[in-house]
Structures are given as structure tokens and as C-alpha cells.
Specification:
By secondary structure, the chain is mainly alpha-helical. It has a domain of 206 residues. It is 73% helix and 4% strand. A hairpin with a 2-residue loop joins strand 3 and strand 4. It is globular, with a radius of gyration of 20 Å. It starts with a helix and ends in a 13-residue tail after the last helix. The mean pLDDT is 89.
């Protein structure tokens, strides 16, 4: 019985962690190139509604996932054009992208509230393919950034875009590709929310997960393996908060302790703040691992 409970807990944590891991992996690659995209929440929401609507109208969850991926890329392309071509402020543009994505998804999704679709097919241990795709993608990204020549170029551009440009690397093109990859992963994270995690559409259904994904990159100090640890840590906290809400009380030394539902819902976000405060104290590690040109616009000479 204990083994069954443990396995069930682990699988539930994997489910809760997958959208965080997908979105954070994409944001990691984007930031490694020197681009700071704070529009993760908006891209996830647009991916969620586009994937859900496509699945409703075609009956194909595969087409829904692909549509969500393309929707995330389209949102990130808007961000890339504004920041990389027209040199708009990355922080302000990312915030605007989240506001735009939130409003657009609510507008498009208004007619889909109350509609349900079949969950994504299960492939192994009761989990769908996106759960394992998130893990595989993270390990591929870790290898790419650390072992491949193209990954080294990406990191070089994030650390010193002027030096990379001087030796002939196409800084803007690589940043475009990294940003599009980040958008695609956010679209997949949104598709997971509406097609696997909830199998329905609800306004603002990501509930801040995009912001947690951005925070996870800082938590991991831009290292892929620690990103996995952080995603499962916060996924566990999210699952725990849902379990507490379902139970209605915590058994503390044999006495039921009723916790306000609002406080329980806030636990993942409170944990995010606490973790970031603790991490920010180690400024040397942050400076060592953070891309030196993160958020800085690139002006090509001539």
C-alpha cells in the first residue's frame, strides 16, 4: 500500500511539474542567448486556447498540440520583432505580451467555457507523451548547451554579443531562433494545461505558472539539471496545495488544522518568493552563471 501511495504521489508531481518544465526549458534557451522574455504567461495562455480550440474542431489532440506550438512561436515572433529588430525594451515588451496574451485568450476562449475534450493518450505509467517530451527536451538542451558547437555559440552570444558578432556569428538570427524555441515550448506548456492537466478551457487557467517558470530559470542559476530539480520541487508544492484543499484540513499531531483555502492556493507563489530571496543572497553564483548580455539590446556596427 505504501509503495502504491508513493508511486501515485510521484506520478502526480510529474503531472503538476510538466507545464513548468516545458515553459522553463524554453525560457532557459531564450535567456542563454541574451534575450529576456517575460511574456511566458501570455504565450502559455494563447497556446492553451489555440490547442484546445483546434482539438475541439478537428477531434485530433495531435493537431491541437501542433497548433499550440505554432501559436506560442507566433507570440514569441511578435516579441522578437519588437525587441530584436526594432530594439524595444525587452522587459516592457514581455510584460505587454503577457497582458496581450491574457486578453486574447480570454476573448477567443469565451465560447469554449464548459466544453471538454478527451485527455491526451497515455503512453507509459499512466502519463501522456508530453510528460516524457519535457524530460527528453531538457536533457537534449543540457547536452546542446554544454557539448555542442552551436550551443557554445549560443552561450557566447548571451555572454558577449559584440565579441560574437566581431568573429562573424549572426547574433540577431540566433537570438530569433532561441526566442522562437522558447515560444514553442511555452505553447506546448499551454497545450498541456488545456489538453492533459484540465481537459477543458478556463480563463487564466495557467494561474501564474508562466511567472513561476521564469523564476525557475533564476532558481536553477541557468543550469538545466537544476531546472529539473526546481520544476519538480514547485510541482510538488502545487500538488500538495491541491491535496490540502481537497482534504480541507491538515492532521497536526492528531488534531485537524483547518487552513484557509486562499492561503493554501498562495503556497506555490509564497514558496517562489522565499526561494528567490534566498538565492539572491548568493550574488556571486548568479553573476557567474547569468548571461552577461541578458536583456541588453544588440546594435550591429555599421
Amino acid at each position: 500500500m505504501d509503495q502504491v501511495i508513493i508511486v501515485s504521489f510521484v506520478l502526480s508531481v510529474m503531472t503538476a511539474s510538466t507545464p513548468l518544465l516545458l515553459a522553463a526549458t524554453g525560457e532557459l534557451v531564450t535567456e542563454k542567448s541574451g534575450v529576456l522574455n517575460l511574456g511566458v504567461e501570455g504565450m502559455m495562455l494563447v497556446g492553451a486556447i489555440v490547442g484546445f480550440a483546434t482539438t475541439v474542431h478537428t477531434g485530433s489532440s495531435l493537431l491541437g498540440v501542433l497548433a499550440a506550438l505554432l501559436a506560442g512561436m507566433a507570440m514569441s515572433l511578435i516579441f522578437a520583432i519588437l525587441t530584436l529588430t526594432f530594439l524595444a525594451n525587452q522587459v516592457a515588451t514581455g510584460l505587454a505580451l503577457t497582458i496581450f496574451g491574457t486578453g486574447l485568450s480570454a476573448l477567443v476562449g469565451a465560447s469554449y467555457v464548459g466544453t471538454a475534450v478527451e485527455a491526451l493518450p497515455r503512453v507509459l505509467f499512466g502519463q501522456d507523451a508530453l510528460v516524457y517530451l519535457a524530460l527528453v527536451t531538457l536533457f537534449v538542451v543540457a547536452w546542446f548547451l554544454r557539448r555542442s558547437h552551436r550551443g557554445l555559440v549560443l552561450r557566447a552570444i548571451g555572454d558577449s554579443h559584440d565579441a560574437a558578432h566581431a568573429i562573424g556569428y549572426p547574433v540577431i538570427l540566433i537570438r530569433y531562433l532561441a526566442t522562437l524555441f522558447g515560444g514553442a515550448m511555452c505553447g506546448l506548456a499551454g497545450a498541456y494545461m488545456s489538453l492533459a492537466y484540465a481537459t477543458s478551457w478556463a480563463e487564466n487557467m495557467t494561474a501564474g505558472r508562466g511567472w513561476i517558470a521564469v523564476a525557475l530559470v533564476v532558481f536553477a542559476t541557468w543550469r538545466p539539471i537544476w531546472l529539473l530539480v526546481g520544476a519538480y520541487l514547485f510541482g510538488g508544492i502545487m500538488y500538495g496545495s491541491l491535496a490540502i484543499q481537497a482534504a480541507g484540513a491538515i492532521n497536526l499531531f492528531g488534531y485537524p488544522l483547518v487552513v484557509p483555502s486562499q492561503l493554501v492556493s498562495a503556497l506555490p507563489y509564497l514558496a517562489t518568493i522565499v526561494v528567490l530571496v534566498v538565492i539572491s543572497r548568493d550574488r556571486a553564483r548568479i553573476r557567474l552563471n547569468a548571461p552577461a548580455c541578458l536583456g541588453r539590446p544588440f546594435h550591429a556596427a555599421g
